[in-house]
Design goal:
- GO terms for molecular function: pyridoxal phosphate binding; transaminase activity.
- Belongs to the class-I pyridoxal-phosphate-dependent aminotransferase family.
- InterPro entries: Aminotransferase_I/II_large, AspAT/PAT-like, NHTrfase_class1_PyrdxlP-BS, PyrdxlP-dep_Trfase, PyrdxlP-dep_Trfase_major, PyrdxlP-dep_Trfase_small.
- This is Aminotransferase.
- The protein contains 14 helices and twelve strands.
- It has two domains: 141 residues, Aspartate Aminotransferase, domain 1 (Alpha-Beta Complex); 225 residues, Type I PLP-dependent aspartate aminotransferase-like (Major domain) (Aspartate Aminotransferase, domain 2, 3-Layer(aba) Sandwich).
- The longest helix is centred in the C-terminal third of the chain and has 22 residues.
- The chain starts with a helix and ends with a helix.
- By secondary structure, it is α/β, with parallel strands linked by helices.
- Helix 12 packs parallel to helix 14.
- The chain binds pyridoxal-5'-phosphate.
- Pyridoxal-5'-phosphate binds next to helix 5.
C-alpha cells in the first residue's frame, strides 16, 4: 500500500508511546514509577462531572453548532476578558476537541505549503509535526539553560524571513516548565508586530504557576499585537479533564470562521453534553484549581530537591506547569538511551528530551502521587549513581 507522503514525514508521539509502555508494564503487574504522563492524576472535580451528567440526562445528546455551544463560547470569551485582558466576543472563539485540535485547526486554516512557523526548542512535540502535516516548514530555534530555555527577541528576529507566517509561544512551557516574564513577552510582541506575522500563544498551563509567577497573555499588550494573536487553551490541565477532549482557539474572526469551516467538515462539534461540563468549570468557584495547584507545588519541591541531590544531574527550577527538565549530559548518555535503560533496569518511566528537540535532557512529570515520586527518585538516584 502506498500511503500519502505526509505520513512518512511525521513521527508518532513519543510521549504517548512511553506512557503506553509504562501503563502496559503496570497492567502486567510490574511495579513501574511513571513520570511520563502530561496529565494531572486527580479526578475531574465533582461539580463539572455533575453538570455534564445533567446535560446528558436532559437529552443534550444531539449535533450542535460546529463552533461550539453558544453558552460555552460566551463563557470562554468572558473568561478571556476577565482573566487575560483580551477583548473577545463569542464570534472570536471556537470550541475544539482539546488544545491539540485547536492548534491543528489553526495550522490548517493559516499555513500554506512552504510557509514558515517559528518554534522555540525545547518544544511540545506536536508543534513541528502539525506544521509538517499541513506542508508548512517548522523553523526550530534552539534555546538552552543560559536563557532559561526561552527564546530571546534577538533570536526571534533573526529567525524571521519573508516566508514566516507564525510564531509559536508556549508559556508556561511543556517540557521545561519555564514561564516568560511580562517584560520578555513584551519584547517578543514587539518583534511580532514589527515583522507583521502572527503569534499563537499556547496557554494551556496558564493556571499552573508557582512562587508568585505571573502569566501574561501576549495579545493583551496593545491593539497591534492583539490583531496578530491567536490563543490556544483548554480544560485538560487546569481542571483535570484530559479525557474530555475540550479546548478552544480564540482570535481574529476571519481565522476563527475558517477554523469553524474546517471543523465543520472534519470533526463537527465537540461532544455536546461534555461542553456543559466546561461551562460549569468556568462559571463556578476556582477552588478546585487552587487545591490541585497546592498539591503540585509540594510535589515539585520534593522532586526538585531529590533531583538536585543527585550528582551528575542539573535541574533548573521552573515557575510553571508540572514538569522538571534535568540536564543529563554529564552522565554521558543521550536521552533515549538514558530513558530506555532507566525503564528497563529500574522501572522508571520518563520522557527523553530528544522528543522535544533537546537531547541533553529528560522530562519528568510530577503530576503523580508523593509515594511514587519518593520511590522513583530512589531508583533514579541508584541508576545515575551506577553510571558515574
Ligand atoms: N499544548 C501543550 C503545551 C500541551 O502540553 C498539551 C498536552 O499535553 C496540549 C497543548 C494539548 O492538550 P489537550 O489537547 O489535551 O487539550
Amino acid at each position: 500500500m502506498k500511503l500519502a507522503a505526509r505520513v512518512s514525514q511525521v513521527t508518532p508521539s513519543l510521549t504517548l508511546a512511553i506512557a503506553a509502555k509504562a501503563k502496559a508494564l503496570k497492567a502486567d503487574g510490574v511495579d513501574v514509577c511513571s513520570f511520563s504522563a502530561g496529565e494531572p492524576d486527580f479526578d475531574t472535580p465533582a461539580h463539572i462531572k455533575a453538570a455534564a451528567a445533567k446535560a446528558l440526562d436532559e437529552g443534550k445528546t444531539k449535533y450542535g453548532p460546529a463552533a461550539g455551544e453558544p453558552k460555552l463560547r460566551e463563557a470562554i470569551a468572558h473568561k478571556l476578558k476577565i482573566d487575560n485582558g483580551l477583548d473577545y466576543k463569542s464570534e472570536n472563539v471556537i470550541v475544539t476537541n482539546g488544545g491539540k485540535h485547536s492548534l491543528y485547526n489553526l495550522m490548517v486554516a493559516l499555513i500554506d505549503p512552504g510557509d514558515e512557523v517559528i518554534i522555540p526548542a525545547p518544544y511540545w512535540l506536536s508543534y513541528p509535526e502539525m506544521v509538517t502535516l499541513v506542508s508548512g516548514v517548522p523553523v526550530i530555534v534552539h534555546t538552552d539553560a543560559s536563557t532559561g530555555y526561552k527564546i530571546t527577541p534577538e533570536q526571534l528576529r533573526k529567525a524571521i524571513t519573508p516566508k514566516t507566517k507564525l510564531f509559536v509561544l508556549n508559556s508556561p512551557s511543556n517540557p521545561t516548565g519555564m514561564v516568560y516574564t511580562p517584560e520578555e513577552i513584551k519584547a517578543l510582541a514587539q518583534v511580532v508586530v514589527d515583522a507583521d506575522i502572527y503569534v499563537v500563544s499556547d496557554e494551556i498551563y496558564e493556571k499552573i504557576l508557582y512562587d508568585g509567577a505571573e502569566h501574561i497573555s501576549i495579545g493583551s499588550l496593545g491593539q497591534e499585537i492583539f490583531h496578530r494573536t491567536l490563543i490556544s487553551n483548554g480544560f485538560a490541565k487546569a481542571y483535570s479533564m484530559t479525557g474530555w477532549r475540550l479546548g478552544y482557539l480564540a482570535g481574529p474572526v476571519e481565522i476563527i470562521k475558517a477554523a469553524s469551516t474546517i471543523q465543520g467538515h472534519s470533526t463537527s462539534n465537540v461532544c455536546t453534553f461534555a461542553q456543559y461540563g466546561a461551562i460549569a468549570a468556568l462559571q463556578n468557584s476556582q477552588d478546585c484549581v487552587k487545591s490541585m495547584l497546592e498539591a503540585f507545588a509540594k510535589r515539585r519541591q520534593v522532586m526538585l530537591d531529590r533531583l538536585n541531590a543527585i550528582p551528575g544531574l542539573s535541574t533548573a527550577k521552573p515557575d510553571g506547569a508540572f514538569y522538571l527538565f534535568p540536564d543529563i549530559s554529564k552522565t554521558g548518555l543521550k536521552s533515549l538511551e538514558f530513558c530506555n535503560a532507566l525503564l528497563e533496569e529500574h522501572q522508571v518511566a520518563v520522557i527523553p528530551g530528544v522528543a522535544f528537540g533537546a537531547d541533553d535532557n529528560i522530562r519528568l512529570s510530577y503530576a503523580t502521587d508523593m509515594t511514587t515520586i519518593e520511590k522513583g527518585m530512589d531508583r533514579l538516584e541508584k541508576f545515575v549513581g551506577r553510571l558515574s
